Amino acid sequence: MYFDSVEAMDRAELEQLQVERLKKTIENAKKSPFYSERLADFNVNDIRTADDITKLPFTTKNDLRSQYPHGLLTKPLEDFVRMHASSGTTGTPTAIFYTQKDLDTWAELMARSMYACGCRKSDTLQNMSGYGLFTGGLGIHYGSERLGMITIPSGAGNTKRQIKLIRDHNVSVLHIIPSFALYFAQQVQEAGFKTEDMPWRIALIGAEPHTEEARAKIEEMMNIKAYNSYGLSEMNGPGVAFECIHQTGMHLWEDAYIAEIIDPKTGEHVAEGEIGELVMTTIRREGMPIIRYRTRDLTRFIPGQCECGRTHRRIDRITGRADDMMILKGVNIYPMQIEQCLMSMPEVGQNYLIELVREGVSDHMTVKVEIKEEFFVEDMRVLQGLQKKIAKTLCSEILLTPRVELCQHDSIPKTEGKAVRVIDTRDED
Ligand code: AMP
Ligand code: ZN
């Protein structure tokens, strides 16, 4: 019944496949300047079970940066047909190169992912993410075509045109970044349309951290089913892990990647079901294999079987990146804790922003939060009450009371692409 029978493969068989592919990957990786050195003394026969992967060294983002642009390539440049880059905002970028075969594998994984959450060839998909270096553009695009859907490369922005395209072409599947989806839902209503009259039924949302509460809000406001999609350019892009129709975590495609979850401090595997840093190895990529990549993304394996029958393990939604953690007055805080509180409050609108500033010797957090129009009243006392309520709710989660600034809806600037949730100026002069 599946797009691909590999998805329901017996676990023992799947692990055997992983071992074979891992060995091939190591041999292939040794053809690259970086791994020829890093793995010079590694004997591939030391890999007997999937767990033996722990004998290999990690690869970090800094390794990729130091090898920019070509240090991890296993073939001459003329054998490659595409390059993408990671969305890092500072320092040297990282570049990912693909052969035609790598692009085919990626499209297949993407198509498999979209099928898993209910997309079919009779659907029409509008890809509302930015094209260009970001892998959510072309990655989703070719996967969608591979599945046989009519694919509309609308790109990001221009909500009016997006709405027209959706209505004119009976678009049933949207690929949209979650922070933009919340904004878009509101724009559709403001343009005078009822979301229940729109032709869509499925939204593929991913590319940035978001909470279950934000998903619920998107689903409710848009009258749509929203499925979480995880990927990163170092592992091709989207299509690494995806929710099936049961929405109980994302199946991570273990015939293409070996995933591990480690304690970021010790590098050791955490106990089954515990949260840690996701570490990934490509086992189906020929041009630029990456071994034990430290993603910095925090998640856990969800124990047990999924009702859908797919045997590939599920990861939980990403609770944040190890780098996202803010330390304020000695307390560790993740932006998603704040989102979770805000999005569960009925008065809160679509957007928020966390600002960290240093005043004299002490640090402060201000949470700017858009309030729904109907709650933005003139009575100062009512507004102050709401402000207090939000501060109190946040305090119960993050254990300190932030300053709360209520903003009118649509007043916090939006970024095209991944949302910027935190502005930290504490270390600036
Ligand atoms: P990039 O390679 O620049 O597209 O960025 C990849 C990063 O985006 C990942 O390492 C995650 O931090 C984040 N990301 C992608 N998909 C998700 C998702 N579904 N949930 C949370 N974060 C995500
Ligand atoms: Zn499933």
Automatic annotation (TrEMBL):
Organism: Pseudodesulfovibrio nedwellii
Protein name: Phenylacetate-coenzyme A ligase
Documented EC number(s): 6.2.1.30
Substrates-to-products reaction catalysed: 2-phenylacetate + ATP + CoA = phenylacetyl-CoA + AMP + diphosphate
Entry-linked Pfam families: AMP-binding, AMP-binding_C_2
Lineage: Bacteria, Pseudomonadati, Thermodesulfobacteriota, Desulfovibrionia, Desulfovibrionales
Name of the top EC class for this enzyme: ligase
Annotated ranges, domain AMP-dependent ligase C-terminal: 330-426
Stored CDD domains: PaaK (cd05913)
UniProt pathway: Aromatic compound metabolism; phenylacetate degradation
Similarity comment text for this entry: Belongs to the phenylacetyl-CoA ligase family.
Calcium recorded as keyword: no
